[in-house]
């Protein structure tokens, strides 16, 4: 007997198989307007009812946009699923997925001399996906098992841009941020510079998002009274997140941060 598979059947089977390989569970958030934001959730391993755990938000890059609620786990999920990391740094970890054709960051892009040029304007309202992330955080931060003084955000490329926009718009939410190969609106750095610790990463040979965006961000944070950490990899291109995820002190630094007392 011949078995015929439709493309939809193949997608469902493949998606099911891949989902079974991850500890991140499938979740959907519905905002007050009724719009959906799909995300994956990793819960603390061996959690205790009497204990509070940090909350980590991870924003993926443009290549992982879509509606399968799976592709966003491509980069970064393994870092948090690592057995040693789950044991040492138990936390709630959220990987939301930005819809195709949408963006985490309020930015525009054009190509000049074969290079991408990005513009950022936070005077505009946040895009729907980022606003949904803010709403999702508000939902989790009131849970009795979530430590609202240890909410962290990190992201890469488009997600690195979203990370910087998030802490610019709502510094009161976050205890620390890790933007990787991103950029942002320098005129809003004063909102977070002295209250949200950041560790910025970039590749010196990045030909998609120039390292100048991170270098300028670091200079602006310093000028506004902040003390950012900055790591630039001399030989890395756009995928500097690979090197960042291998940084031994990365999670230790992140999970040691607590929200600035002035923002409580």
CATH topology: Rossmann fold
Helix content: 25-40%
What's the arrangement of strands in the largest beta sheet? 1-2-4-3-7-8
Spans of at least 5 consecutive residues whose pLDDT stays below 50 are 1-20
Question: Could you give me the name of the CATH homologous superfamily?
Answer: Alpha/Beta hydrolase fold, catalytic domain
For the record, the CATH architecture stands as 3-Layer(aba) Sandwich
Number of domains: 1
Written overview of the protein:
This protein has helices spanning 7-20, 77-81, 83-88, 128-141, 158-169, 212-223, 240-245, 250-255; strands spanning 25-30, 36-42, 53-59, 92-96, 107-112, 115-120, 146-156, 176-180, 199-203, 229-233. The chain is of the alpha/beta class. Strand 5 (107-112) and strand 6 form a beta hairpin. The model is unreliable at 1-20 (pLDDT under 50). The longest helix has 14 residues, at 7-20. The strands form three sheets. A six-stranded mixed sheet has the order 1-2-4-3-7-8. It has one domain (30-263): 3-Layer(aba) Sandwich (Rossmann fold).
Keywords:
single chain; 264 residues; alpha/beta; Rossmann fold; six-stranded mixed sheet; two-stranded antiparallel sheet; 8 helices; globular; disordered N terminus
Which helices and strands occur, and which strands form pairs?
Layout: H1 7-20, E1 25-30, E2 36-42, E3 53-59, H2 77-81, H3 83-88, E4 92-96, E5 107-112, E6 115-120, H4 128-141, E7 146-156, H5 158-169, E8 176-180, E9 199-203, H6 212-223, E10 229-233, H7 240-245, H8 250-255
Parallel strand pairs: 3-4, 3-7, 7-8, 9-10
Antiparallel strand pairs: 1-2, 2-4, 5-6
């Amino acid at each position: 007997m011949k078995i015929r598979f439709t493309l939809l059947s193949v997608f469902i089977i493949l998606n099911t198989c891949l989902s079974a390989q991850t500890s991140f569970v499938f979740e959907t958030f519905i905002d007050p307007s009724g719009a959906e934001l799909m995300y994956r959730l990793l819960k603390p391993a061996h959690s205790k009812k009497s204990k509070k755990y940090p909350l980590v938000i991870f924003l993926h890059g443009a290549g992982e946009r879509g509606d399968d609620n799976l592709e966003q786990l491509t980069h970064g999920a393994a870092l948090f699923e690592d057995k040693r990391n789950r044991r040492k740094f138990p936390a709630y970890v959220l990987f939301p997925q930005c819809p195709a054709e949408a963006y985490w960051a309020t930015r525009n892009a054009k190509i000049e001399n074969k290079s991408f040029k990005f513009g950022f304007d936070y005077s505009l309202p946040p895009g729907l996906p980022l606003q949904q992330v803010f709403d999702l955080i508000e939902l989790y931060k009131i849970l009795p098992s979530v430590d609202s003084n240890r909410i962290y955000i990190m992201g890469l490329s488009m997600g690195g841009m979203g990370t910087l926009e998030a802490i610019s718009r709502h510094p009161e939410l976050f205890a620390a941020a890790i933007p990787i190969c991103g950029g942002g609106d320098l005129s809003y750095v004063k909102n977070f510079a002295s209250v949200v610790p950041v560790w910025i990463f970039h590749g010196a040979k990045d030909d998609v998002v120039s390292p100048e965006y991170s270098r300028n961000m670091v200079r602006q944070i310093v000028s506004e009274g902040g003390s950012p950490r900055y790591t630039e990899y001399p030989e890395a291109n756009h995928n500097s997140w690979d090197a960042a995820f291998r940084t031994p002190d990365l999670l230790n630094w992140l999970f040691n941060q607590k929200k600035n007392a002035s923002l409580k």
